[in-house]
Design goal:
Length: about 160
């Protein structure tokens, strides 16, 4: 298994993976396709196994007003045949060590039981617009002390 930056020739393969990993939801596929169309800076990696993309991870900018205050992690997806084998965990650990990621505040909306294993902690500030009680909103390297609603790229709302 190899981890690589996502290249444009593999965009369609990532869309197919997201359809498989999130059956019954089109949100994740649409989000990633919107990012690819817009050309905004998104940090993306894939796991490749025998020339097949089996996992995907993305980071996009997080905002306090118009100022970037960190990154949002997600989506993180693993092909169903390869889930529960540590592939998503390995991809996340790899990404968290990358220069463009390793010093930034990272926010994630997800399963606290999973993300706490990587050093994420419940996030008191800022507030997530998708989870008003912040029950599933976590962060790592969060030094933000002021209360505000964290902003997402416009692609999350399209």
């Amino acid at each position: 298994m190899k981890i690589r930056k996502l290249s444009p020739e593999n965009y369609a393969k990532v869309s197919a993976l997201l359809r498989q990993a999130f059956p019954g939801s089109t949100y994740e596929v649409q989000l990633v396709e919107n990012f690819h169309r817009s050309g905004k800076t998104v940090h993306e990696w894939v796991c490749v196994h025998i020339n097949r993309i089996i996992a995907y991870l993305a980071f996009s900018n997080a905002y306090n007003g118009h100022d970037i205050c960190g990154l949002h992690l997600g989506p993180l997806a693993v092909k169903p045949d390869f889930q529960k084998q540590g592939i998503g965990s390995e991809l996340l650990r790899f990404a968290l060590r990358q220069d463009v990621i390793k010093t930034k505040t990272i926010f994630v909306l997800g399963d606290p039981g999973f993300y706490k294993k990587f050093g994420f902690a419940p996030c008191a500030t800022p507030v997530c617009p998708f989870d008003k009680k912040n029950d599933h909103f976590l962060s790592i390297r969060n030094t933000i002390g002021q209360q505000f609603t964290v902003g997402y790229e416009s692609e999350f709302w399209e």
